[in-house]
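INFO batch 0412 | record 1 of 1 | parsing
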Amino acid sequence: MKDNAQSITLSADTEISLSIIESGCLSISPKEQTMFIIKDNPQTLNDMRNIRDIALEWELIERPEFPTIGLFITIVSESGNRKKYDNYFNLDSDEEIKLAKQLSKQDSFILLFYNEQIEYSKRIDLTNEHKNKLNMILIQAKT
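INFO prediction complete | emitting tokens
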């Protein structure tokens, strides 16, 4: 988990989406790489600047009205605070399926921490176990 100070410009649509949520997680794909934006208040973002542990969990959510793949990100800061964020890939959306498939081929992804702007970023390594689990879910979902 390294700090990755990239200069990433967010699209107008992404900025609008971020402006209407208080806290949460969005996926984006600049430069053909899936990334995630964590939005939260300045105090929480400051606390999460030093990550002790991060856990990623995948789940296929088979609902007829909204079939999705859920990604649940749990971040534990050095101070011991724990925060959980969810991101959902809509299986009825070709664009979101593409994001999930891209992610399954990546060795890492970038987490952008955002309040009114990108405050900082972290590169998160994906293990083979993470990628295999996502691939199994993509196969199970018949994407």
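INFO post-check: The beta strands are 2-3, 24-28, 35-39, 51-61, 68-77, 82-90, 108-114, 118-125.
INFO record closed
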